[in-house]
Amino acid sequence: MALELKSAQFRREREGVWRELETLVARAERHGMGSLDGDSLARLPTLYRATLSGLSVARAISLDRNLLDYLEALCARAYLCVYGVRERPSALLAAFFAWRLPAAVRGAWRAIVLAFIVILAGVLAAWFLTASDPAYYDSFIAKGVQQGRSFDASTEALRASLGGGGKDVDELGAFAAYLFSHNAQIGILSFSLGFALGVPTLALIFTNGLMLGAFLALFASRGLLVELGGWLSIHGPTEFLALILSAAAGLKIAGAVLFAGREPRLVRLARDGRDAAVIMMGAVMLFLLAGLLEGLGRQLVVGMAARYLLGWSIFAAIVAYFCMAGRERRP
């Protein structure tokens, strides 16, 4: 009986605040925050905090369950009105492409340079080793990945493997989807391994460099380097840029862990982690583009000059976008 009286008194003293808050929240949910006038917007945070305080008191004195459920639900709804995102999804998406993504990429230029150097080191190491001893080729590229492109194949067979064309569009679309999924998994793995101080990330992209270097050495030994360049140009620049960005995002997280400076490590990690996530989203979109170019463009565009022009023009446009977009905007 005493508990019922206490609950009734508690509700009677504060019910006016709850009802007022519920009215404002219901109006905002139905018609948006723009439907609230200036006085209502000013009252909303005050009413929310008062209700939140009432919920804390109700929990402390163990009032009835129905009242606690009502206050918890009301506070959750009011929280979204007070602290929720005010921008429309279309505006957030436009801001992401207009300046958030290119600004995050520019901010990670040191990690990007490091990732590029590591991949280049892998390419050169495998190229020179394979050129000096073809037996290294199978060490760098697994049999299942070679698809007949090995030192045992004839020059004509290697040249024919670079032709493309003649495939059904549905088959090419499925091939593009597979390539996007496979390459995106590699990129996401490079990004996620950044938490292990970046060492596995560097090892993974170095391994990708070794595969490319051995591949280049094979075709260079048969005088097919120019043809291979055209074959790779369709998707290669975009795909390797995506790999580099994925690794750079992982290295940025590793840098926040290793080199926090005077900041608390969690604060630095939270800030750099947001930028790394933005970079990774951009890398996934590049993987999608590279998969489309490889699965469709490389088979449909068979002219050597056209392949070079298409692939490197797209790459130049992407690099220009990252370098120039959103420079006038300050986050």
Automatic annotation (TrEMBL):
Pfam families: SpoIIM
Record's keyword terms, sorted: Membrane, Transmembrane, Transmembrane helix
This protein's record includes keyword Cell division: no
Keyword Kinase on entry: no
Spans traversing the lipid bilayer: 108-129, 186-206, 213-234, 240-261, 273-293, 305-324
Protein name: Membrane protein
